[in-house]
Amino acid sequence: xxxxxxxxxxxxxxxxxxxxxxxxxxxxxxxxxxxxxxxxxxxxxxxxxxxxxxxxxxxxxxxxxxxxxxxxxxxxxxxxxxxxxxxxxxxxxxxxxxxxxxxxxxxxxxxxxxxxxxxxxxxxxxxxxxxxxxxxxxxxxxxxxxxxxxxxxxxxxxxxxxxxxxxxxxxxxxxxxxxxxxxxxxxxxxxxxxxxxxxxxxxxxxxxxxxxxxxxxxxxxxxxxxxxxxxxxxxxxxxxxxxxxxxxxxxxxxxxxxxxxxxxxxxxxxxxxxxxxxxxxxxxxxxxxxxxxxxxxxxxxxxxxxxxxxxxxxxxxxxxxxxxxxxxxxxxxxxxxxxxxxxxxxxxxxxxxxxxxxxxxxxxxxxxxxxxxxxxxxxxxxxxxxxxxxxxxxxxxxxxxxxxxxxxxxxxxxxxxxxxxxxxxxxxxxxxxxxxxxxxxxxxxxxxxxxxxxxxxxxxxxxxxxxxxxxxxxxxxxxxxxxxxxxxxxxxxxxxxxxxxxxxxxxxxxxxxxxxxxxxxxxxxxxxxxxxxxxxxxxxxxxxxxxxxxxxxxxxxxxxxxxxxxxxxxxxxxxxxxxxxxxxxxxxxxxxxxxxxxxxxxxxxxxxxxxxxxxxxxxxxxxxxxxxxxxxxxxxxxxxxxxxxxxxxxxxxxxxxxxxxxxxxxxxxxxxxxxxxxxxxxxxxxxxxxxxxxxxxxxxxxxxxxxxxxxxxxxxxxxxxxxxxxxxxxxxxxxxxxxxxxxxxxxxxxxxxxxxxxxxxxxxxxxxxxxxxxxxxxxxxxxxxxxxxxxxxxxxxxxxxxxxxxxxxxxxxxxxxxx
Length: 819
Prior knowledge:
Elements: E1 3-5, E2 10-12, E3 19-20, E4 26-30, E5 36-40, E6 76-78, E7 89-94, E8 98-102, E9 119-124, E10 132-135, H1 142-172, H2 177-190, H3 197-217, H4 221-226, H5 228-249, H6 257-266, H7 270-273, H8 278-288, H9 293-303, H10 309-341, H11 345-380, H12 384-404, H13 409-420, H14 426-450, H15 454-459, H16 461-482, H17 490-499, H18 505-516, H19 522-537, H20 539-556, E11 575-578, H21 582-592, E12 608-612, H22 615-623, E13 628-630, H23 636-641, E14 649-652, H24 657-670, E15 675-680, H25 683-692, E16 696-699, H26 700-715, H27 720-747, H28 749-753, H29 767-774, H30 790-794
Parallel strand pairs: 11-12, 11-14, 12-13, 14-15, 15-16
Antiparallel strand pairs: 1-2, 2-3, 4-5, 4-9, 6-7, 7-8, 9-10
């Protein structure tokens, strides 16, 4: 049986790997990784059905007998199959475990991959049918398929075990787990614990998709506007100048300044450090201009420096660097196409740019309205499973669409995040994808660690240290020089320069894509990965050096400007309102009044942020100007996604007993020192909330009774002051009774296990008692008046009446009866 490729008029003889009359002119490569294998000008003219040596891609394959040849794309290897001129070419999938083989004999290890089970990828020079494939027939190797599944399962188990060990260990050491994943990748690769690196690497690329998706979610217009001066003023200049500096260091091709220095000082191998094209120089320069968001933001959060001007400037630069990745993701496929076809890059770049503006523009406009509506429909179902599935579908779907348009899948993930950044669902989406992103990104860093060639590190350590020093020095000097131009002090500029002088995780994305597309050679790619990993490992040290340098400058020069100037967009210490129904809205309005701030200033109440899972409530509340986000605020991960790191207080306004209790338990574990207030349906529920960790709770039904009773007494002509006073006395009595019940439950296990709900004790007061109590000053009524009376905070005011029944105080203020 033979398989016929009708498009190219080629026919393969059964299981021989030989093609007859396969005479299309063009470049042939692997269908899986698109690596160019060889070029044919007439047909496959060697007797074995494969190209003769002189038909190879120029500078891609150099005949060196039985040795491995110089590698053009990082995946090409050649070996002599016979003593004749026939040279079969193999495409190395990933390292040593799995190969895409085309002709001759495949790599024999535990399994034999059939030559004819692969697909040949054709890209014609003048043909419009780029991407057509010739399928070859092969029987299904069931044993090999089972081995692949078993190997992937073993590798997954290995990775999960590494994650369980690495993350807690590095947290204890106060180091980033990313370094642990790199270290694990090196160790696992050296000892051969990863059996099927190819499939693991494919799975790990989902981590990059989620990382780009999350970066897109951060690009809201409000955030860009708040950081515009630092992002577009300092960040844009930093990326451009660093790219130009690194690129200039690598030019001209085959004789760069940097190459000559390394060859002169360390006698470096020309084939390793020599840059052969402007394309390589630009890609390397742009990738090295990026810094590590993961390391830097973690350090700033731990030090509490994000809300300062120094932290805001750093965040703005990182935000612009995230945006700068997008042009790189667009340009890299253009460079790959230019290398394959040999055309001028400018017309191709213009063509791809037009396609990007058109295709991505249409995708953006359509996705903006369609995605928002789809998320609204799914959110209304209140199904967390469907919402998470929609998040995953969004990432995968947009990635696939951009791939079909000819761009990278990572660009699609970034675009999806940017489209959802302005919706009400951003916070919940970010919280839902964080576990997937964390695990898969950890897997990506592990596979990146497997790319760290220890042999290259030990052999080329002079080059590694020189490149590492050059990277840190150049970026530090450029960023430090730019800081004063945007209003930063010299001390702040120096600190930012040191803090952002390392390479970043996006460099791995760029290097990986460039290597896959044939823009960077494998050896150079390995060397650059080692340099970036070492620079990231030095981030805490660089931060300390920057701090000491800033202190030294401050001592010698001094500066009257306030280095810790606050930026007002931070919500890390806001009051959190969970559940934004009618009671939540009343509480929000109560907190917004100037009196509750307790200071004579321009502050308008306490800063707060609300959360609700009803998309209609969120939409309407935002229209009214309430600072509310869609999301389950009882989940600490959602609060973290919203930027709430240490809330001033948490108010839980849920109605359901179980839901409220679970929320109190989760939030108490996450925020041990934060005051938590909640609604209680009845006295047993109040006792349950107290045990779960609530600072205080109110009996909702009792408050309703007091409100109705107060209105009735006013209707009978009783003075408002007397009614308010009686309400206060009854609330104090109910709180005392609740405390008694808690004490009894703690000391008497039998009573705690009783199913009979505690009953409200009757109050019997004489007129003389109330007269005596009215002579007592309000601040002396109760010893605990210095604490928050949550019943007073949460009760609603009468409709249309200007006679408040509650105090006007909040946290830290004594109760005060109306005068």
